[in-house]
Design brief:
This protein is of the alpha+beta class and 176 residues long. It has a single domain, classed as SMI1/KNR4-like (3-Layer(aba) Sandwich), CATH 3.40.1580. Helices cover 31% and strands 23% of the residues. It is built from 5 helices and 9 strands, in the order ααβααβββαβββββ. It has helices at residues 2-13, 20-36, 49-59, 65-74, 101-104; strands at residues 38-39, 78-79, 82-83, 88-89, 116-121, 126-131, 140-147, 154-164, 172-173. The strands form 3 sheets. The chain has a 5-stranded antiparallel β-sheet, with no helix packed on it. Strands 1-2 form a two-stranded antiparallel ribbon. A two-stranded antiparallel sheet has the order 3-9. Helix 2 (20-36) packs parallel to helix 4 (65-74). The protein is globular.
């Protein structure tokens, strides 16, 4: 009986599978389009499998396939000719720990939120979070935030709002 209950809770807390067509479209269509117009590609070096394994161990789960594919291909960097809200995207690993996803795992999420990973920021004071929760796994949310210079503590302004169902859905090719 105990194994049946623990099996139920493992399934209940694991993220739902991302539909193959969404991840496949991002991998086959968007990543190549992004690659042609990348700015700061692999700014933090090549993707390191060991860093991703450490991330999965600390986070307790893998990243959504579309976001993982982006990190494996570019490990940070911004496309120029593709619409996106980001001014900066974190990489899987970097020499500067502050720009690493491993460091953002330990940033405090907005009040009342748990298991959110900071993946980027915009040109103002907006942070972009990816949900690692089973109910909305991979969805992207945004919230204004600032760090207190004296204490270093993060403060949030307003409620976070959902921006997209997935990382891949955040990007779309602009008309040239």
């Amino acid at each position: 009986m105990k194994s049946l209950i623990s099996s139920f809770f493992r399934r209940a807390n694991s993220p739902p599978p991302i539909p193959d067509e969404r991840s496949e479209h991002f991998t086959k269509v968007m990543l190549p389009a992004m690659g042609a117009e990348m700015e700061l590609r692999n700014e933090f070096g090549e993707f390191e499998e060991s860093a991703y394994e450490r991330f999965k161990q600390e986070a307790g789960r893998a990243l959504p396939p579309d976001y993982e594919a982006y990190l494996r291909a570019y490990n940070g960097g911004l496309p120029r000719q593709i619409r996106h809200p980001f001014g900066f995207l974190f990489s899987m690993q970097t020499q500067e720990m502050e720009a690493s996803l491993l460091s953002t795992l330990h940033w405090p999420p907005p009040p009342g939120k748990t298991n959110w990973l900071v993946i980027g920021r915009d040109g103002a004071m907006g942070l972009y979070f990816m949900s690692l929760n089973a109910a909305d796994f991979g969805s992207i949310h945004s919230c204004f935030a600032f760090s207190d210079e004296m204490s270093g503590e993060m403060s949030y302004m307003g409620e976070p709002h959902q921006v997209s169902d997935s990382f891949g859905a955040m990007f779309r090719v602009t008309n040239r």
